[in-house]
């Protein structure tokens, strides 16, 4: 087996498996721009993507080639994949409990702090699983990396990997990229102090740390200064730690325009578009597309729409809210409860305002990518109102595909607001009345202004497409 020059490590890999009716395994490449961007850079170079087996079919695929790489497949452009078959209790502790139920909540500042979190012996056990999971990734990377290889570690699931790798393979050049926001030290400190230190020191094993927004990079630097007492240069964005200088960079991931246009040209998108138009008639459209995710603030988005219909009755019967939410993280109880409250709120609005001819909210909680693309094409207004978000690519993808010069109502707490803020209508995500007013402003904006703003949004959205975003990170490793 050749050793790889470029390695990527992420919890969710570029490919997933399912079992067909006759019992054989079928694989599907991840659809997002990130996967295609990373694969296109690594094509033609010995490269390896290490990820976790996340389903029974994934585990079967990993088990059929134990400890080995899955075959290089045509649609992975020559990149090998090593899917780790991690014991179920370790995966649950690391992914569901620590990453999704704890670190995600900390970085998005989502805790209802008088009640949660509470870090007892159960958490200590989960943290042990998180360590073991990070060790398993490090083992695979150590075994698969050529001398002096470059390793790009992704996201909050794998914060300890850089430190472990540096100890075991000092020849490697290591980057870590955070896809979430980063909480300020006042909030981050709520983690048990040993855990907080271990996370920061784990990441500082890298040569280069990447973030999506200057706000998250600076919050990380402040955590290093306050919690580790590390020597931090806020101006140059560097941390001195363990006798090394670690660079912190901002790489604002953008939309993949080519891939988006290619996907939007599929016949399935035209078909969904016809179905949507049949449903909504000639009403104006406020569109949102998210994972069913607490940080996306879907309930307050619906409340804002209710405020709009209440305060401005002239919109009743003339506007429809399309809310498409992909199911997400059903293993986490808070996500299941949140999905229920999203469904309940939409139902209440429909009960209050619907007429024989008009349904105010069309909400679907399922996975239909062609329908999302069709809704981007048709949107008059795109609503993206997260309470906190690393970047938010919907805010970037929507304006690229919009055919009606959509206006963007955007939370100032999304990383995307850094680049799109001038052309979007920025809102405070907690203020539903402010958001309702912004929806009204968006719906009544003169055509010429909408066109100009939409052009600026689309231009800013594609400034750093995934391929270049990844190249930037590799370049920062020399
Ligand atoms: C966020 C994370 C990504 C992750 C995605 C889906 O955007 O930053 O790394 O892939 O959510 O989450 P999931 O838990 O389904 O992998």
TrEMBL record:
<dbReference type="InterPro" id="IPR001830">
    <property type="entry name" value="Glyco_trans_20"/>
</dbReference>
<protein>
    <submittedName>
        <fullName>Trehalose-6-phosphate synthase</fullName>
        <ecNumber>2.4.1.15</ecNumber>
    </submittedName>
</protein>
<dbReference type="Pfam" id="PF00982">
    <property type="entry name" value="Glyco_transf_20"/>
</dbReference>
<comment type="similarity">
    <text>Belongs to the glycosyltransferase 20 family.</text>
</comment>
<keyword id="KW-0808">Transferase</keyword>
<dbReference type="GO" id="GO:0003825">
    <property type="term" value="F:alpha,alpha-trehalose-phosphate synthase (UDP-forming) activity"/>
</dbReference>
<keyword id="KW-0328">Glycosyltransferase</keyword>
